[in-house]
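Hi support team,

I'm filing this because I wasn't sure whether my run with adenosine-5'-diphosphate finished correctly. The job status page said complete, but I'd like someone to confirm that the output block is well-formed before I use it downstream. Pasting the exact inputs I used:
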Amino acid sequence: MAELHAEVWERCLNVIKDNINYQSFKTWFSPIKPVRLENNVLTIQVPSQFFYEWLEEHYIHLLKKTIKSELGISGRLEYSIVMDTSNNQTPPFTIKVPTSDKKAINNPSISMPIDLNKGNNKEIPNPFVIPGLKKIKVHSQLIDSYSFDNFIEGDCNRLARSAGFAVANNPGKTAFNPLFIYSPVGLGKTHLSHAIGIQVKNNFPDKTVLYVAAEQFINQFIDSVRNNTHNDFVHFYQMIDVLIIDDIQFMAGKEKTQDSFFHIFNHLHQKGKQIVLTSDRPPVELKGIEPRLLSRFKWGLAADLQVPDLDTRISILKKRIYNDGIEMPEEVIEYLACYVTTNIRELEGALISIMAQSSLNKKAITIELAQLMIEKYVKYNSREISIDYIQKIVCDYFNIPVDALNSKTRKREIVQARQLSMFFSKKHTKSSLASIGLHCGNKDHATVLHACKTVLNLIETDKQFKSYVDEIDKKIKV
Ligand code: ADP
Ligand code: MG
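And here is everything the job wrote out:
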């Protein structure tokens, strides 16, 4: 026979389920365990003090009504709260709390985890004191230069950028909550997430925005557990209007931190606050993150940042050069953008090292200097020849604009430049025929194959053509 307390609670759940939405039910009621029924007092166990506070604040009427209808007018509810013992020094324990009168809620006591008092505060915080929501000043930790103005738009980032922009103009009110931005390193996650924060601050100066690296969050959590200030930690984060956590993948395997973040996430989300997360991979590929968190990451929008195309890379460099007030010949900029292709941070690194070289040695910024630096810099970072770079060399050789490769014209020299670009891309890159075709005038793989055969034929039969090919090949391999 099922025990009575379980049965009673089961019936309560059925009523509650009908009165709130599914998501809230899953979040706040599924984790509750009925413990006992004695003297008409039903005791339920909740996973944390925060849980208890939340239930008391949001669902107490529903709970009381349900209990009374199941147990009669004298029926009462009592909580058993599992106290946080993540420091492992004490075994988990529970405390008993009758449903509160709400007096305690107005008792403000909150401190910021950002400058957590590291003193040895060994006092166990009084679980009956529920901190009030006092407005406090939060340092947003935003970097001014990581603005939307400085974030160049391209095909590679259009979705993420516009979602970020929408979020910044309407935090918590769009479907993009959380906004989850992912990409490999060096493609703009940190920049874009700051841009959102900055824009929110511009639009809504009163909103509390916080940018925090996941590692920082983790360390704060650990400190708070050590110092017995975990409640303050949670409450601090629950007061943020726009919470940005960068590189969330670092939470992998950190179950206690995830647990704490779970509660913070729920609170913020339910209150319509905005959450922005970044990661080096999409939610589905995140290992070591609890399923209940992962599923929440998918509630909003996951948008990726891709490798920028040549034009976007050139624009990024130009913006940077302009902001720094430097002059640089167009051909050097193009050279850099053609050569450093997979990582914007490296692109900027190459730019900076050229500028440093030129000013240290009082050398003019020339394409030769750029070549020299690239040699050193990019070799160091696993140099790779790209299709863009090949196209640039081929087109420069025949003195035609790179854009012409995409045109529909049948002009012989352009058709030939396109075929040569395809041929050299096959020879020098690991790209598939399909991808080469896509990059060279939006052709299919069969066209690329045909181009390669044509070039090989001509090399055999046409001495003049062969000398072109050899010269271009040398330039590519410089
Ligand atoms: P991630 O966080 O993905 O590793 P970052 O945000 O740190 O990448 O970006 C690396 C560098 O590239 C930063 O200096 C950033 O300003 C720059 N950057 C990235 N994307 C863009 C862009 N679309 N426009 C301008 N600069 C960019
Ligand atoms: Mg980053």
